[in-house]
Amino acid sequence: MTDLTNEQIADTLILPYLNHAIRMFDAGYASAVDIDNGMIYGCGYPKGPMTVAQERGLFTPAEGSAEATAPEFKLEINKVGVVGTGTMASGMIQVFAQAGYDVVFVGRSQDKLDGVISFIDKGLSKLVEKGRITEDAKSDTLGHLTGSTEREALGDVDIVVEAIAEDLAIKSELYKDLDRICKPGAILATTTSSMPITKLGEVTSRPESVIGMHFFNPATILKLVEVVTTDATSADVAETVLALCANIKKVAVSCGDRSGFIVNCLLFPYLNDAVKLLESGQATMEEIDAAIKEQTGFPMGPFALLDLVGNDVSLAIEKELFETFGDAAFEPAATLVAKVEAGDLGRKTKKGFYDYSA
Questions:
Q1: Which residues span the membrane (predicted)?
Q2: What is the pLDDT of residue 61?
Q3: Could you give the residue numbers annotated as active site?
Q4: What is the mean pLDDT of the chain?
Q5: Topology (CATH) of 79-256
Q6: What is the Cα–Cα distance from 200 to 188, expressed in whole angstroms?
Q7: Which CATH class is domain 6-62+262-349?
Q8: C-beta of residue 77 within 8 angstroms of C-beta of residue 52
Q9: pTM, whole model, 2 decimals?
Q10: With 60 as the cut, is the pLDDT of residue 280 above it?
């Protein structure tokens, strides 16, 4: 039996989340609209935190806030390169090709390249079956694709988006190579959700052309892209990437090169707080999940979401946020650490906070 009502449970978790969002805005890190869009399109929330904070009287927008103008292409983008052949890379390749861009994608082997084509063919076939595209549109999309096992094939692309292992040494080696291979003025973008983009720019001779373009998985379905600029990224590159996102029918949000960007920086402390509330003994995880869904309209409760994301992934992000910001509120919950140490990682191991073995 809980000590708290559903409303109290929700407030215990949502108020810190709203305060983190307000601090993010006050620091000038991102606009209120981008913070809201990040959580709406990245997490499926019915309202963004700045809107909720305004409704609760915690935030008052500045008077006469101007509507943002549509971004324009400051640099020409006709041909797109993608490095990687995993699920994220394959989804991005499909999205770019469906928008009419010629896409050159690079993988380690012909089998990997064939896997990308198979993935996209299967996805497009499902769209044909549902009547959302025609057979001609499917053929046209596939006709935009060119695979290669050689990075040199990226020599004439206008932008390269990489989606390889989240390892700074591996990414840095790739960026040195892309700097050598890609034509002058080509944009070098990364889908990283955790690596410092500034460091990737520093290994090139063109840090002004390096930018984050963090798609959310699956890229064919989720609409959000976090466009992450470093201090060196040029304004023309940033606006061009925002325009490209609009062209491929994505919702882009702008932010700086800081741990967690917008979405992870707001989402994971909230999830961590849920574990700490469980530890307090004031509510069970079932009660917490039910209260959040009922009171906020979030698509999942925090424990169901932790298990879906993976407790190991969640812990790694929370540790990074704690190390970056030094905020005691971000210190990983002991129970989350224990779950990972026990190998209870969530759905992928059939056991996390909940048991999925049945």
A1: none
A2: 84
A3: 193, 214, 226, 264
A4: 95
A5: Rossmann fold (3.40.50)
A6: 9
A7: mainly alpha
A8: no
A9: 0.94
A10: yes
